[in-house]
Amino acid sequence: MKWLNKILGKQNQQKPRTADTVAFRDLGDWVSDRTSAELGGFFESAAQIFAEIEATKKELIRNIESLKAAEPPELPSRVLRVGFAARDSMIKQINVMIDRISTPEMDYPDIMEFCRSIDTALDATIEKSAKSHHRAKYLFPKEVGAVFIDLRSIKKSLAKLRDLLDRGSAKIKGFDEITGAIQRIDDIKRDVVSGNSKIQKNGSKIDEIKREIIDCTAKLEQLSQSKEWGSFVELEDRLKERELEANNIESNVTELFIPLNKALNRMKKQSESGRYTLSKKQKKLLDVCLENPISADVTDVNDFLIEMLPIVESGALGLKDKKRDKIVDQIDLIMDSFAPKKERYDVLKSETREIEHQISDLTISKTKTALERQLAERRGELAQIDEDLVNLEEELKMRSIELEDRKAELFDAVNLIEPVQIVFD
Known about the structure:
Largest sheet: 2 strands, parallel
Number of helices: 12
Oligomer: single chain
Mean pLDDT: 84
């Protein structure tokens, strides 16, 4: 018989349940079907509970009418007055609550709100009518007892409804989480597709820009072999020589005036504080000597330094003897050397302007400038696109990691409902 039991035992063993396979694109329908099935059973049970509540409500209305019509026993008038007042108060409070009991639409959030609000209202009614209950019960024990039996029945029905909601809320919440996870995954996938499309478009744009750069470079090369190129290069060399010499003179003059800065700044502060007054022209020359002395007129500088010299020598600026003597010597040095430097600088600037004018008159110059501008713009565009691509690729990398995390979250949420193998596109 053991062999027969083994055979029968194997036949009776249940086969292990295999997980369903659902494509990600069909998961929304899967959730909708499961939600409908879950809510279908929930609404059926909820409808039964609401039927109980409505039946109890009708019974409560009848019992309240009976309480209104009830006749009290023979009691002192004072006791009757208190009992009647208590009955009327209790009935009024209960009627207010009854008016709020209305079966909601078969919608999950509406049912939750009904359960919460009616349960709260019922507790408040019972609490407020507690004193009236005891006084009215003294006169009408049977009728009051029947009313409170109905109230307790409604309370029990609400407790059943709350239990039903609690049992269903976990799955309903799970379905909502799945729907949200699906949306987040779709958003990420859309971003990834959009990002890859941008990368592809930028790749085509890079190829186009590189072709333009090659074209500009070739045109510049052709330009360098033209007849005008020699004249152009010679003019540019002369221009660079004069610009370099002018810059050197400007730096040299700036260094020439730097030793005066301390004295000049003290003069400026004392003028601003009112110790003595500088003329408008003197103030302007003082600022020029501090900021850009090469731009000053020689005569104006000499006049200003002549006026400055006695101020320095008088000790009014509070300089130490050694520092004062150095500044006096530096003023003498500037008055001796500034004029020839300024004269040479002005000549160089004049020649520079003339050469620039000659260069601008050359057709090759305009062509070269346009090509160089175009080349610089294209190289700038290329650098910007390269930077954007690096940032975009890094963002797509992060989004891809996030996508895998969201897929794992979705898998966990779905499998809390039932075992399912999700196939992603």
